[in-house]
């Protein structure tokens, strides 16, 4: 039986009340969470419930469309800014998985909006609103994470603001068959941070203290923040990307929207100079999002982050 994990809950409204975050216990909590688990919840993030409901509603309508319409967006090309896919199969550990997904490049919105689905007709409007709200939250969270690393709130701010924003919408059909073990198989996310919205629980992470899978407990109104590979590299391994998977529900469709924030496609990420010294030599090679996507498109025995370790 998979046990629940104790995950820190960060109240963003408390952070917004103070302009000076020096010695803030919240920054300390974020530091501990990123260091020990690679993961935390945020509450009072400020995204209106109507925006969240609107985004989930149009995606549910999209996934319920006749297959022929969705298949127009099917592609194996990981560089395509908009693509739909159906994944069903078995991983190396013989666990069966099943998931439909839609990937949308989301920033700058004007560059990609015309490629987004037109069905349902209000798809672009509702998802556009969610995308812009979650981006604002990601900018705030990135700043406090930089503070928690002692790099200062403005460290890489412009690079982050001009970076890539990719929305990964997942739909996991209910499965009563006991042999379907996973909706999405174990992985780390590549970017700096991912902000996750789930319709209901199902996310599991590896607890670093005992190496076991733990269920992420439901926290009403929360979003989850996940440390990605780029943040692992930037922090020179002080923070590590969290290994996670998602388990489908037995009785209803589970959906999630993973909002992945990374540096721009060809911008390289490398360990922050300030975190390097004799006792902490550079532990990762530099890399870009494009190199990661190239790695994804060919079958590899090592994860991308493993290939970067010096
Ligand atoms: O569905 C979930 O909760 C997780 C999704 C996820 O990990 C991803 O899209 O990268
Ligand atoms: Fe993920």
UniProtKB/TrEMBL annotation:
<keyword id="KW-0560">Oxidoreductase</keyword>
<protein>
    <recommendedName>
        <fullName>Fe2OG dioxygenase domain-containing protein</fullName>
    </recommendedName>
</protein>
<dbReference type="InterPro" id="IPR027443">
    <property type="entry name" value="IPNS-like_sf"/>
</dbReference>
<comment type="similarity">
    <text>Belongs to the iron/ascorbate-dependent oxidoreductase family.</text>
</comment>
<keyword id="KW-0479">Metal-binding</keyword>
<dbReference type="Pfam" id="PF14226">
    <property type="entry name" value="DIOX_N"/>
</dbReference>
<keyword id="KW-0408">Iron</keyword>
<dbReference type="InterPro" id="IPR044861">
    <property type="entry name" value="IPNS-like_FE2OG_OXY"/>
</dbReference>
<dbReference type="InterPro" id="IPR050295">
    <property type="entry name" value="Plant_2OG-oxidoreductases"/>
</dbReference>
<dbReference type="GO" id="GO:0046872">
    <property type="term" value="F:metal ion binding"/>
</dbReference>
<dbReference type="InterPro" id="IPR005123">
    <property type="entry name" value="Oxoglu/Fe-dep_dioxygenase_dom"/>
</dbReference>
<dbReference type="GO" id="GO:0016705">
    <property type="term" value="F:oxidoreductase activity, acting on paired donors, with incorporation or reduction of molecular oxygen"/>
</dbReference>
<feature type="domain" description="Fe2OG dioxygenase">
    <location>
        <begin position="162"/>
        <end position="263"/>
    </location>
</feature>
<dbReference type="Pfam" id="PF03171">
    <property type="entry name" value="2OG-FeII_Oxy"/>
</dbReference>
<dbReference type="InterPro" id="IPR026992">
    <property type="entry name" value="DIOX_N"/>
</dbReference>
